[in-house]
Specification:
22% of the residues lie in helices and 26% in strands. The protein is of the alpha+beta class and 700 residues long. Among the domains are: 267 residues, YVTN repeat-like/Quinoprotein amine dehydrogenase (Methylamine Dehydrogenase, Chain H, 7 Propeller); 46 residues, no CATH class. The longest helix is centred in the N-terminal third of the chain and has 36 residues. Pfam families: WD40.
């Protein structure tokens, strides 16, 4: 056998070096190739997308704001639906902006659903079949159901048992009797508190009187025995009757009243009649009623607001009936306490007029029915007046119908004027110890001054020679012209007088047939004044002409009138049928802008506006001793500024509704040339327009 042939050894090939990275093709879009950590790890190739931008490092570092909106950019905006009502296709503006990115159905079922009931039936059927199968196996005697005990390793397993002692339980109980309880109920009112305080004061007075008698007897006995008495220690002030207790009780009483009249207080502060936007007339909202038990059967003869405190006003009680005269009363009420006056005092005769001092808000002058004038300081604890006129000091002989404070004289003495039916306009000066009087003017009767006297001037001249003086009923001093004042008389004439010339009248205005009850200057215009009379009329005058510009017949006796402090064309008058008439001559020149009945069975006697324009309240008094607070609605509170603002807003709304006019100036350009005027100047201009219109109607 031939020998085997040996193969020639072949050289072992060396390991091939790693393949070089493929060259980057511009179309392959390779960004870079990262080799592996070892020679056997594969290379990582980062591929750059074709649409990726080439940005520099500076552009990459810039911050970009992205806004996410809650709408679907893929939502269609031209969906049309067929309208069966209009029989045509309509564009559907409602587009569903919901975009679903992921949805997965749940595996939970509601217990009351059909599928849950079917699944429960299947489970019950399976459990029943399994129970039947177990019963069948037990019946056949199979060992599948027996519990087989597993064998345990005896080298690493042992069983141990122990028994613990359970503590015996003990029950403990106690019995207690509940504390005795008593049901108590009661009611506390203001008058009960007042009566309790008064009873306590009476008991203390009686105790002090008994103690004083006892001390007097002991002192007499010691004096008789010759034993000197020992000095007693002064007792401390009683806390119940201290000033701090009175102040706290007043605050508590006001809090109780505020809670009682909470709805009225809210109406006073926030009520605005929304129906005024749909009508031209206005309304008056009744707020509080102020009355005093001791003055129920008396007439309200004066209502005057305090110049410093906007919530405080004075009310005078008397009687206009000559046959039913009695004592009078002066009360101070506050809007913070409608149920009881802050101050009250009784006068020997009826109070006919009151007036607060404009600088000294606690000083009050009062005119009485017997011709006496008094001056009170309401801060004083004493109810007596600090000054009072007498027969020696020259008091009036007839009722004092009106009083008015004036500026202090050169000696800084307080002084005021008064007018009476005895025909005197008197200046009273508060001296150190008494009132000093001097007659400013005596009202002389003039032939033909009354309309009734035009029928027979000769008879009037004879009456004037017999009577001598005209009976003064009212007067008013101009706030804009210091030297001018007006006087209304019982004969129906109105005289314009001056403080500098007291010998004669500057002018006489004849227009009323009966006594003039009130005459008032306008608060904004220096020429205009108004008057009311028992002849059922209210007249508007210009003091430069002797005839009335306007006349309003109210069909009943007019008791009083007052000008509004916020508008130069608004005034209110009250009549004997219980109605309040509010006029706004800028809105209606022929009839009242508001006519509302305030009292049912009583006659209205006095009306007064709150002097502050930011507190629109009207006080009205009647002949039953009641004063009612009224709040005018927005239509009755128009001012020149508010009216112009409302007209401007209405004009802007109309222009906005109709679209901008071609060539119209812009709002900014139109407002640059406007010059804001003082509200008082605007009110004066409004009154001047009414005055010019009235003069023009007279000429025509």
């Amino acid at each position: 056998m031939p020998p085997a042939r040996k193969k020639k050894a072949e050289p072992v090939p060396e390991a091939a070096p790693p393949a070089p990275p493929p060259e980057q093709d511009p179309d392959s879009q390779y960004e870079r190739i990262i080799p592996g950590s070892s020679e056997w790890d594969p290379m990582r190739i980062i591929i750059k997308p074709r649409e990726q931008l080439q940005l520099t490092e500076k552009e990459l570092a810039e911050e970009t704001t992205m806004v996410l909106r809650a709408d679907n950019p893929q939502a269609p905006h031209n969906i049309v639906r067929f309208s069966h009502k209009e029989k045509c296709f309509k564009l559907d503006p409602a587009v569903d902006q919901l975009e679903v990115h992921f949805a997965q159905e749940g595996h939970l079922l509601h217990l009351t659903s059909d599928e849950a009931k079917k699944q429960k039936d299947r489970d019950d059927e399976e459990k029943a079949s399994l129970a039947r199968e177990m019963e069948r196996k037990k019946a056949e005697g199979t060992d599948d159901g027996e519990d087989a005990t597993g064998l345990r390793n005896q080298f690493n397993f042992s069983e141990r048992a122990s028994q613990t002692l359970n503590n015996a339980r003990r029950e403990r109980g106690t019995m207690t009797e509940p504390p005795p309880s008593v049901e108590y109920s009661g009611q506390c009112t203001q008058w009960e508190m007042f009566d309790a305080y008064m009873e306590d004061i009476e008991r203390r007075k009686e105790a002090e009187a008994k103690k004083g008698k006892k001390d007097k007897k002991e002192g007499t006995r010691e004096k008789e025995d010759g034993v000197p008495g020992t000095a007693k220690e002064e007792s401390k002030d009683n806390i119940v009757h201290s000033a701090a207790m009175a102040h706290a009780a007043k605050i508590l009483e006001r809090m109780a009243n505020q809670n009682t009249f909470a709805d009225v207080t809210e109406d006073f502060k926030f009520w605005e009649d929304a129906s005024d936007t749909f009508r031209d007339e206005g309304t008056l909202l009744p707020l509080w009623k102020f009355s005093y038990d001791k003055a129920k059967k008396k007439h309200v003869t004066a209502v005057r607001w305090n110049p410093e405190f906007a919530d405080l006003f004075a009310v005078g009680y008397g009687s206009y009936d000559f046959m039913k005269q009695g004592t009078g009363m002066l009360c101070l009420f506050s809007l913070k306490n409608p149920s009881w006056p802050e101050f009250s005092c009784t006068t020997p005769t009826g109070v006919m007029c009151v007036d607060w001092h404009p600088q000294h808000s606690s000083v009050l002058c009062v005119g009485l029915y017997d011709g006496t004038v008094c001056v009170y300081d309401v801060r004083s604890k004493s109810m007596a007046p600090i000054y009072q006129s007498t027969v020696k000091s020259g008091k009036h002989t007839d009722p004092v119908w009106e009083v008015c404070w004036q500026e202090e004289d050169l000696a800084k003495n307080l002084n005021f004027f008064s007018i009476s039916s005895d025909g005197r306009v008197t200046l009273w000066t508060l001296a150190k110890s008494e009132l000093e009087c001097s007659d400013l003017m005596q009202l002389k009767l003039e032939p033909g001054a009354s309309l009734m006297g035009k029928q027979s001037n000769e008879m009037e001249e004879e009456d004037a020679s017999l009577m001598g003086l005209a009976g003064g009923c009212c007067f008013d001093f101009s706030k804009l012209s210091e030297h001018l004042f007006l006087v209304g008389t019982e004969e129906g004439a109105i005289h314009k007088c001056s403080k500098a010339y007291n010998s004669e009248y500057l002018a006489t205005y004849t227009g009323h047939y009966m006594a003039v009850y009130t005459v008032r200057w306008n608060l904004f215009h220096p020429k205009i004044f108004a008057s009311c009379s028992a002849d059922w009329t209210v007249k508007l005058w210009d003091h430069t002409t002797k005839t009335a510009l306007m006349s309003f017949d109210l069909n009943l006796q007019v008791g009083d009138l007052a000008w509004s402090p916020w508008s130069s064309t608004t005034f209110a008058a009250c009549t004997a049928d219980g109605k309040v008439h509010v006029f706004d001559l800028n809105e209606n020149k022929n009839e009242p802008y508001c006519e509302q009945k305030v009292a049912r069975k009583s006659k209205l006697t006095k009306v007064a506006f709150n002097p502050r324009a930011d507190t629109p309240v009207i006080m009205v008094g009647d002949d039953h001793g009641t004063v009612v607070a009224l709040k005018p609605s927005p239509n009755l509170r128009w001012t020149a500024v508010s009216k112009a603002e409302a007209e401007r807003k209405a004009k802007e709304e109309a222009e906005a509704a109709s679209g901008p006019r071609r060539g119209a100036p812009k709002k900014s350009d139109a407002g640059d040339g406007e010059v804001k005027k003082d509200p008082r100047e605007l009110e004066m201009e409004k009154a001047e327009r009414i005055l010019e219109m009235a003069h023009k109607n007279q000429i025509e």
